[in-house]
Design goal:
It is extended and about 50 Å long. It has a domain of 29 residues. The chain has three helices and two strands; from the N terminus they run αββαα. It has a two-stranded parallel sheet. It starts with a helix and ends in a 10-residue tail after the last helix. With 75 residues, the chain is mostly helical. 44% of the residues lie in helices and 5% in strands.
């Protein structure tokens, strides 16, 4: 929890940015990329306080990059 909160607060303290969080499983130590249900709820509660205070915005990846795929262009 402290590590994840640290990623978010570091972005806040350094002018903002995009902190993308991905969770594979919500379980009790079922793999290295899991989070317990209790810790997930604590994280969501903490993020809610950050959103309510205006410190952060929580968005999906689609909301951040938006729209349909656009071909890259070259120089």
């Amino acid at each position: 929890m402290a590590t994840i909160e640290g990623y978010v607060t570091a972005a806040e303290q350094n002018g903002g940015g995009w902190v993308q969080l991905t969770f594979r499983h919500i379980c009790n130590s079922c793999d290295a990329y899991s989070i317990t249900a209790t810790n997930m709820q604590s994280l969501l509660d903490w993020l809610n306080t950050q959103v309510t205070s205006g410190a952060v915005a929580v968005k999906t990846t689609e909301q951040v990059i938006g729209g349909t795929y656009k071909q890259p262009f070259c120089c």
